[in-house]
Amino acid sequence: MTFTYFLELLINGALTGLMYSLVALGIVLIYKSAGVPNLAQGAMVMLAAYLAWMFTTMMGIPLYVSIALSVVAMFLFGLLAERVLLRRMVGQPIIMIVMLTLGLEIFLRGLAPGVLGSSPKSLELGIGLAPLIVGDIFINRAYLVGAIVALVLIGLSLLFFRTHLGTKLRAVSDDHISSWSVGISVERAIGISWGLAGISAVAAGVLWGSVQGVDWTLSSLLFPAIAVVILGGLDSIWGVLVGGLIVGILGSVIPGVLDPIVGGGTRNVVTSLVILLTILVRPHGIFGREDIERV
């Protein structure tokens, strides 16, 4: 492997990891606000991409208006999911809530392709397919744009949790009962967190949909996103950034070395090892809060 090729793998891997962070951000926003691991985020990304495609292609609405409409629709979807599903689970064991989000993931994964078609659909953002060439290094333009969007959304999320509303959401995550006692609407706070995750899903769905097409496979982005949040920390927005970079780089460089030797397929193995080793060595992740419980 030449140094130029290694550098190309490194840069594109980092950009891909930041694209993963767009999916992971939605998971962290809900966990940081509601204390619930959301396993439906992959399907929410897929649904957002389908909506953007539907508004643009089937209804003939201009692209950026379609994206804005998708943002509104997914925010409302998040509020609806909390009202119809999550609110009924108050007081239930956390494992049941996790299973509920997994059920929602499976339901949406079948519903959207079933209604709008399972064949891959093109979502053109006008980025262009030609790579950006810096010296002898080829950089994927779509990943570069996605990485910039990810950095902007991560920065906005960090600022948001410093606001008055963000402080309320963190209080709800820490203790529902205490939040209720000081007059915070826990249901509304959790609903807002799901709505924010829906907005993050639009950014991820539109950008990933423009790269690989819009179909059910977008929901499989949940897998690398889980690796990102486990490595970075379920309740850490900084962890989304760092975890995304690490997962993306490892998932690019290691397969770049091993795939020619073993014939391919090592990317998912690397992602799985990140999850397993993090849980074994540092279960709360790099930046996650370590909660010690008596068992």
Report on the architecture of this protein:
A two-stranded antiparallel ribbon has the order 1-2. It has eleven helices and two strands; from the N terminus they run H-H-H-H-E-E-H-H-H-H-H-H-H. Helix 2 (41-58) crosses helix 8 (186-212), helix 3 (63-84) crosses helix 8 and helix 5 (141-160) packs antiparallel against helix 10. It is globular and about 60 Å long. With 295 residues, the protein is an all-alpha fold. It has one domain (3-281): Orthogonal Bundle (ABC transporter involved in vitamin B12 uptake, BtuC). The protein is 72% helix and 2% strand.
**Total domain modules:** 1
Helix percent reads over 70%
Number of helices: 11
Which topology does CATH recognise?
A: ABC transporter involved in vitamin B12 uptake, BtuC
Biggest sheet architecture: 2 strands, antiparallel
Encode the helix/strand succession as letters: HHHHEEHHHHHHH
Strand order of the largest sheet: 1-2
| Termini Cα gap | 49 Å
Low-confidence stretches: none
Q: What structural class do you assign from the helix and strand content? A: mainly alpha
Mean pLDDT: 87
CATH top level class name:
Mainly Alpha
Strand content: under 5%
Q: Which architecture name does CATH use?
A: Orthogonal Bundle
Give the tally of β-strands.
2
Global Rg: 19 Å
Overall 3D shape = globular
